[in-house]
Design a protein that fits this description.
The chain is mainly alpha-helical and 369 residues long. The protein contains 17 helices and no strands.
């Protein structure tokens, strides 16, 4: 009976994956496609907003990365990107299984992949918008896999590529300092400098300078109370409005979460593979909570802590109540309300609540370990 149910889920997952390819458009991909084209015309994509769905605010390296797509017809380019995104997601789960010495082609691996395609809204949202998040997911997963395999220089390089594309995940850096993985850090710093230098050389210098002087500072300073911003900042803004109490509460709460997380991690800093993966999982969840902007599609990155935590519970034969807590957290992050006004104001931050549940679970498992 279980095999039949898994087969149904797998086929349904394939249906939802293919269905994404039939969508007429992917709004956020428009930005990545047309912005490099403006650069080729000698224009600044941070200023000129030609055919953009929203303002272009990505780091300059993204302009180089997406430049090859501009040589394809737009309709072809967007389908190529979605196929690549599907591959990035599948490869990410494959790498997580490989990191844990599990067989991805097993019934469990295929069923879990299908489950995300069917039920996980952040994945659907990211694919439907043509977002860059699944590439970041793949790069971070690859970096973690290489870290486990002691291939430190390569791990640092792919972490750097993720960082110059999306500034994620920043909290890995102090953790790598804690566990003294100097080769990873050296590779990360060197690769980040080289990638930014290459970007500065190939782009007009005024484009790069404009990003750092204007766009980056605006991102750091500004706040959004939109429902789709499920960070601490967005949630406090929705509840308390734009005022000093709201900004102060966010700062204090974020500092408490950071201190508690690193205190628990420091308590069991032993460099064992299963603990490193649980440490990194906790930091990914924390990053999403304390980011200035964590749109719902960013929470597709919870796939990493979700699977690492799941296998940690199974490996150590822990109580099923831990599995139920993990499932509850993911159910909260999987929800989406097309009209959030119909639900209570507090529950409009259900994704943040789900991430918090997963964060608490990870910390508890680390503390008990």
């Amino acid at each position: 009976m279980i095999r039949i149910l898994c087969a149904v889920i797998i086929f349904a997952g394939l249906f939802f994956a293919v269905k994404v390819l039939l969508l007429p458009g992917y709004p956020d991909f428009n930005i990545h496609y047309y912005a490099p084209g403006l650069v080729l015309k000698g224009l600044n994509p941070y200023v000129v907003q030609d055919r953009f769905f929203t303002q272009y605010v990505y780091p300059p390296f993204g302009l180089l990365f997406f430049l090859p797509f501009t040589f394809l017809p737009f309709l072809v380019a967007q389908k190529v990107w979605i196929v690549m995104s599907l591959m990035f997601f599948t490869a990410s789960i494959y790498l997580i299984f490989k990191t844990l010495n599990k067989k991805y082609s097993s019934l469990m691996g295929l069923t879990l992949t299908a489950w995300f395609f069917i039920f996980y809204f952040p994945l659907k949202f990211s694919l439907g918008m043509g977002q860059i998040n699944l590439l970041i997911l793949f790069l971070v997963t690859l970096s973690i896999y290489l870290l486990n395999k002691k291939q430190d220089y390569l791990s640092g390089f792919f972490l750097a590529v993720s960082f110059v594309l999306k500034f994620f995940p920043v909290l890995f850096i102090p953790y790598l300092l804690l566990i003294r993985r100097w080769k990873v850090l050296i590779s990360f710093v060197f690769s980040t400098v080289i990638l930014n230098a290459v970007t500065f050389v190939f782009l007009k210098s005024d484009i790069t300078i404009y990003f750092w002087k204007n766009i980056f500072l605006d991102l750091v300073r500004s706040s959004k109370d939109y429902y789709y911003n499920q960070s601490l900042d967005g949630s406090f803004l929705r509840m308390f409005g734009q005022n000093s109490f709201s900004s102060g509460s966010v700062l204090v709460t974020a500092l408490i979460l950071l201190l508690v997380t690193f205190a628990v991690i420091y308590k069991n800093i032993k460099e064992k593979k299963y603990l490193i993966n649980l440490h990194l999982s906790t930091l990914i969840v924390l990053s999403l909570m304390v980011n200035k902007f964590s749109w719902q599609h960013h929470f597709v990155w919870l796939v990493i802590p979700g699977l690492f935590t799941l296998f940690y519970i199974l490996k150590n034969k822990l109580s099923k109540k831990y599995l139920l807590v993990l499932l509850f957290g993911f159910l909260l992050t999987s929800l989406n309300f097309s009209d959030p006004g119909v639900v209570p104001l507090l529950f409009q931050s259900h994704v943040l609540m789900g991430a918090f549940v997963i964060w608490v679970l990870n910390l508890y498992l680390l503390y008990k370990s």
